């Protein structure tokens, strides 16, 4: 099954722009620079041979993306990997290619280096529902012990967020997006900045894969 639905055309998607305040759509970053990133960025996937890098952020569609990225890491094992946990695809790519591979991708003017963002409130609600209400994920709730004390309400999450600095020291699912992927200091290292929106996310993701010429990895045998 496809992780993202196929399209006949990508015309109009990913038009060029520079960040000007709030990110309100997916765009090709006209201000992108070839910047060498630090070597300690979590979830940064690199593929020098495909001239592609992707940094995934928790609660921003990373489950689907990691399955695709794992296919790129091990193309001959695609069907097996799709049905397993692929969360560590970025770590695996770093092991495969090392610091030299990261430097190559981020200094290549022809490379695509992408990240997807999400409306902060939508991401917060998604984290609450998925990590505080669903069984098996309680350890990632804003307060890991909260579910064991009784019902958890959105009011509790809002009060907790109001009392804590979400820039550091919290579970990654609640950490502000600009603290992921080096975005606070290195936003312009990324050539493509996506925005997850209900009506455009699938098409934006598929068009990104097509633009990067890696759409052949957008398939799994687990569905």
UniProtKB/TrEMBL annotation:
Keywords: Glycoprotein, Golgi apparatus, Membrane, Transferase, Transmembrane, Transmembrane helix. One of its GO terms (biological process) is carbohydrate biosynthetic process. PANTHER family: CARBOHYDRATE SULFOTRANSFERASE. GO terms for molecular function: sulfotransferase activity. It is found in: Golgi apparatus membrane. GO terms for cellular component: Golgi membrane. InterPro entries: Carb_sulfotrans_8-10 (IPR018011), Sulfotransferase (IPR005331). The keyword Oxidoreductase does not apply. Belongs to the sulfotransferase 2 family. This is Carbohydrate sulfotransferase. It is a single-pass type II membrane protein. It comes from Noctiluca scintillans.
